[in-house]
Amino acid sequence: MKGHAAVTTTSLSPAKQWRWKWLALTVLLLVFFSMLVPLAFLLGLHNGLPVGYLGDDNAASDFLEIYGHGDGVTGQYSLKDDSRAKQMLLNFTPSLPQEIVQSITGDGDGKSKGFEPDEDSEQLDSQPTGVVSNSDSNATTPFPEVVPKPPADAFNVQLTSDSRLGDRVAANPSNGSNFYGSESSCQLEFGSYCLWSKEHKESMKDATVKIFKDQLFVARAYYPSIAKLQGQENLSREMKQNIQEHERILSEVISDADLPPIYANKIQKMEQTIAKAKGCTVECSNVERKLRQLLDLTEDETHFHMKQSAFLFHLGVQTMPKSLHCLSMRLTVEYFREPPPDMELSLGFKLDDPRFRHYVIFTRHILAVSVTINSTVMNSKDTADMIFHLITDRQNFYAMKLWFARNSYNEAIIHVLNIEDLSVSILNGVGLKQFSTSEEFRISVRGFDQTEHLQLRTEYISTFGPSHFLLPEIFKNLKKVIVLDDDVIVQQDLSSLWTIDLEGKVNGAVNFCKLQLGQLEIILGRSILDRSLCLWTSGLNIIDLEKWREHNITGIYHKLLPTFHNGNEETWRTAALPTSLLAFQGHVFPLDSMSIISGLGHDYHVSEDVIKTAAALHYNGNMKPWLDLGIPTYKKYWKKFLIQGEPFMDQCNVRH
């Protein structure tokens, strides 16, 4: 057996030796390539670029995505335009090759390489971007975006209900990534807060404190590498001491006014220490990690504060001010303590007489509707045949009854109606869940322009709410009414509107031709009859109730509602835009848009000359004139129609 075993071993030895030769050859090849790859990288042969640090996938992007400080506008800022970011990069000069530093900061002979400035903040990349967050009602609510895939005339639509009870999403979600490429995108995510914060931008009160923070961060970035260097014990000890002093100062101050008198010496001392650290050869990995941490933390913190500020802004916008709540409560208590005489008993025969001029206002706001009526009456030559029908809910019904019983508006008759007193059959006929005033929406559209860039713009649209579709049932004997929103003031006599021939149309409204039905096809679906039709807005509308009944507009609305409404309140309110646009499709008579100016609740750039010559002003948008957050320039036109000398207003400290 032993001899057989010896023979077997001898016969297999050449094969084993052959295998070992291949293994040795493979190891040699691996060693050769492991040396060749680093050598090629050091020589810059892999892509022709100079040796150095470029970071990860975001390092070579055109812009650092950051948020504006203090003005509430998010956007992409060029590093060469941001002095603070530029200085931060310059602090890291020893860790970056000179060629790359010049390409980032724009210094040197050539132009910036890879960091080009944005020529137009409104223009976006030609490639569509994705989901943008919406914080009008909730800072964490996602704002879905619909990305159509048609040819050059396609539009990217984002829709949000901008109603006073909160913004609601009405478009279908799609995948994508956040973008903050312009002021418009900021307005998309944070709504009117961006407009308001930009207008009320304040100067920085912590500029020097931020210098302390920047120096502290740079020192922390260099310190681990300096501490490992041989022969730099003194510099390491000096840097550690300066870091501790900066940390102590920053722990006690918030603004520049809190800084100690010796802060200038501390800044200079730290600057000298950082300059010494720059002269040392250090590794890039730690600096890279610290810089990336700074960017991530700063962006996250800024975005959090932006969301928080936007939420508080919209909370202030959508919540009834304390003074107005006091006014409503005092009037309600006074009504039950001493009810006023019911004038409807003696004037009831006029309320459904079609020979009178009937105005209808859906409202919850006593002071707002009072200003609307007062402005209409004061600018009318004849008020004897004017009747205002105020439709409200039970909560505000009694306060309004007492208010309009106490205050007279020349010879005009004020009829206050509680919508909850209507029969159940009427309410269920339009699927009404609760009382609603006009609904307001922000519609953001991105379409391709001639330069093949995606142009984003945001428009504000107000439209009828579900309660408006009760009009032909509430006023069965009337033939024509004018519907006003309670955020409208009238500056001229509206008598001429009653003689306008609507040419067989149902709704005389101001056309908003900046948007067309075809641009909202992804929201409205395939029910669009004419893509070129302009959108129409509420605010001041002439309604032919006879034509309404003839074309069964309420029935059309009732058929459309299930398409956009799945049973909950969110979709019930956001369904107001598509149902209103489609129900009146082909039944809108265009009014003169120059005589009715809208946008005074969100647009800071309406000309004063245009305002003075307009027949009516519509404060659509979140910044209503009765709020502290309203646009100050436009408040004076609204305030001059406030009732003066009302004791309840004085008691509740309602500002005049």
Give the oligomer, counting copies of the same chain as homo and different chains as hetero.
Answer: single chain
The strand count comes to 19
Gyration radius, rounded:
34 Å
- DSSP helix fraction: 40-55%
- Arithmetic mean of pLDDT: 74
Describe this structure in words.
- The structure is a single chain.
- By secondary structure, the protein is an alpha/beta fold.
- Among the domains are: 1-48; 341-594, Alpha-Beta Complex (Spore Coat Polysaccharide Biosynthesis Protein SpsA, Chain A), CATH 3.90.550.
- The strands form 5 sheets. It has a 7-stranded mixed beta sheet with strand order 10-9-8-13-16-15-17. It has a 5-stranded antiparallel beta sheet with strand order 3-12-11-6-7.
- The protein is elongated and about 110 Å long.
What's a concise summary of this model?
The protein is of the alpha/beta class. Among the domains are: 1-48; 341-594, Spore Coat Polysaccharide Biosynthesis Protein SpsA, Chain A (Alpha-Beta Complex). The strands form five sheets. Strands 10-9-8-13-16-15-17 form a seven-stranded mixed β-sheet. A five-stranded antiparallel β-sheet has the order 3-12-11-6-7. The protein has a three-stranded mixed β-sheet with strand order 14-19-18.
